Amino acid sequence: MSLLIPDSGLLFWMLLIFAVVFAILAKFGFPVITKMIAKRRDHIDNSLRLAEEAEVKLGQIKQEHARIIAQAREEQNRILKEAAQERDNIIRMAQTQAQDEARKILDEAKTRIDAEKESALREIRSQVALLSVQIAGKVIRKNLESDQAQIDLVTRLLDEANTSRAIKNN
Predict the structure, then answer these.
(1) Band of residue 79 on the pLDDT scale cut at 50, 70, 90
(2) Does the residue 22 lie in any domain?
(3) What are phi and psi of 4, to 5 degrees?
(4) Cα separation values, 170 from 161, 166, 167, Å
(5) Looking at the predicted structure, is the pLDDT value of residue 149 above 80?
(6) pTM beyond cutoff 0.85
(7) Is residue 2 part of a domain?
(8) Domain assignment of residue 80, yes or no
(9) Burial of 144 (0-12, 13-18, 19+ CB in 10 A)
(10) Are 144 and 150 in contact (CB under 8 A)?
(11) Residue 136 pLDDT class (50, 70, 90 cuts)
């Protein structure tokens, strides 16, 4: 039984040693341990606070990022619309200029065609008149081979001239 129940002297010395060790630990060990635990707790609290601040800043950065992306998209859409409008304006201006140029070229061509047509008609008329005079000259020479035919022709032309003058005077 002595194993299960210790002697009173042994129990006294064990209690005394325990009290001394506990007192030494209480005076020197526990403050250091509690200080380290408090320091560790402060470090953990500080880390948690910094993590929360970082999370808030990350949320703000995400919001700012989303806002910047939205602005960039709006700017992109605006630029694309302006480019499309400018392209349409350039196309419209080019079409208008092309139509004006085509109209101008057509007008010039019509003018040249009319001028050449008039010139050709004048030349044809002058050639027809020249041919008519030549033919008439040949016909008259053939018809007026005799002197009597020539006198008859002159008389008849004078009568016609007098008649036409009399009609004009009335």
Answers:
(1) very high
(2) yes
(3) -85, -30
(4) 15, 6, 5
(5) no
(6) no
(7) no
(8) yes
(9) middle
(10) yes
(11) confident
Two tokens at 92? 């419209």
* Domain extent for 110: 17-169
Alpha-carbon distances, residue 130 vs 37, 126, 127, 136, 144 (angstroms): 135, 6, 5, 10, 20
- Residue 114 CA to residue 118 CA, distance in Å, equals 6
How far is residue 3's CA from residue 125's CA, in Å, rounded to a whole number? 160
Sign of the alpha-carbon torsion through 8, 10, 12, 18: negative
144 located within any domain = yes
Angle at 67 between CA 62 and CA 70, to 5 degrees: 125
DSSP element (H, E) containing 143 = helix 30-143
Structurally, the chain folds into a number of domains equal to 1
